Amino acid sequence: MTTRRHWLQRVGAAAGSLGLVPIGARAAAQDQPSTGALIERAIPKTGEQLPIIGLGSSATFSQLAGREDAGALREVLARMVELGGRVFDTAPGYGASEETAGRIAQELGIAPRLFWATKLNAAPWGGGTADLAAARRQIDASFARIGRSVIDLIQIHNMGDPRTQLPLLRALEDEGRVRYIGATTTFAHQYEALLHAMRSEPLDFIGTNYAIDDRDAERTILPLAQERGIAVLVYAPFGRTRLWRRVAGRGVPAWAGECDAHSWAQFFLKFAASHPAVTAVTAATSRAENMADNMAAARGRLPDEAMRRRMIALVDSLPAA
Asked: Which domains can be identified in the chain, with CATH numbers?
């Protein structure tokens, strides 16, 4: 499996003759961040501004969270906040991620600075009625892990049971214990359920998958979010590991510098963040240098429509992973 780490180890030989950014100059792109102010987007409901790049806690983050030594995750969270990041997306379903990150954030004293987005997944997998008692216990556990009296965002994880769970989240929002509520899915077979909830429920946020080679959300989900004034968190902007496999052995094209993308991570993240419906993009990582590389995508220029088409054409021309 090709990850970002494997890609950095494997590429670099033929970049110069092909008009690519030399790998040696860009492999440590986090040491040469794009200049300018951190780009932020407003949450439609309130106008609150969030940085367009955040941190997710699935995948490699989740894998390390379950180990005794979480030093690498401490460095990741510290680096994100140091570089101006705030959005941290987690879930009780991501192994020990929520618990470990909550402990680290409190130890570092950064918990109040984070926009903490977690999820409610106390519902039967594959559908069915949620157990409200279990849902309340899960929410109480999230509060305890985070160490805060108010959680910024709780979303129904993968459309668990909106009919049962949304009233619970709305009650918490009315009480001031939760600032925003929403729903998520990264599964195509649940898109219609998500769209129905977006049309019929007063959602503040949604979360869904969106990447340069995974653009289904552009057809219905993202336009409806704009129409309804719903904030959007993007998940899996690297196609999990799919995009790293597709660009294996290739350098970033020099023309990507026209939108201040100097690594493949910045290329992929800037594409996702440039859609006007997107509020923040939350890629997971367990390495501080990757977090810094990701945060650089929140500075400088974002792709315009012509650049987006050029980026799509390039990725579409590559062999499928």
From this structure: 4-316 (3.20.20.100)
